[in-house]
Amino acid sequence: MNQTANIGIIGTGGMGGRHARNLSHEIGQANVVALMDMDTERAQQVADMCGGATIYTDAKLLIADPNVDAVLIAAPDRFHAELAHACIEAKKPVLCEKPLATSAAEALKVIEAEVTLGKRLVQLGFMREYDPAHIAVKEIGDRGELGEKLVFRGVHINPSKDEPRTIDDVITNSAIHDIHSARWMMNDEIERVYTTYIPASPSQPETARFVMIQLHFRSGALGVIECNSEAGYGYEVEVKLTGETGSVQTNTQQGAIVRHNNLVSQQVDEDWLLRFDTAYVNETRAWVQSIINEIPTGPSAWDGYASMVVADACIESAKSGQPVDVHLPERPHLYGRTTS
Ligand code: ISE
Fold it and tell me: Is-above-0.70 flag for pTM?
């Protein structure tokens, strides 16, 4: 068994750069040996920070590089499914940033490739599973002290974007995290959704600044996701579970609370790289360990697919103004791990 893993990273923007830093400097047992980006200057800066790496402008060449043991996909969302598929063909483990694809049909092709191979190679970048505040909520919920879980509530506040975002993008790129959190926290699948939203402006009905999703779980439990895509003040993610005899919610207050001039104030994180700093380190550490142990862990391609099936239903509901049933096929045996 190898004691270190040589990693190739596709995409060296904010997320790819952060993973490169974490893999090179925050965790042992990993070397970043290759980077792919069309922006070779940016890739070179990341390579310098990692102490050197081969730079590619063609992702297929990086995947085929015999020195690359495993691949981290941090390219734009629309490339994820095709790249994950190529990694499965090359039989290389992958950490694929969310979403697995931009539609359930595309995500299904990744599932089919893994099932045909008979081996799980893909871990999905649902990093909230590695966030201490989320883990604390999940553990208390799962211990059963609060009785059956009745309601999931997820609040996802994003800072402003330069351009208004489409409803499709807010759901597949942002709310996909909350959809996965809901499945994971509740250990249940979502069977019906109802999505309403406020467009960025009345003349742009295809855009969304605020999305509200109601969830119905198979068990009869309910959920609600609030996703603000342009809050304008900072970044926050909170989760609350209500059970029969109590509730539990994330406590992410850090740093100082200041009382001054008749005000109580506290810093709000600027973005997800700050809010989930620890989660990203824990996520890549667990991934590298799973490559070395040759035992897949963490959110799977199935989690990526199942969340995408729900996301597609949310988009359909937003556009039709009607509740939409979620049709999730039977989970293949390969994905023994359900939503927990
Ligand atoms: C971004 O791509 C992320 O993955 C963040 O975690 C999420 O909060 C944000 O909404 C997405 O745009």
Answer: yes
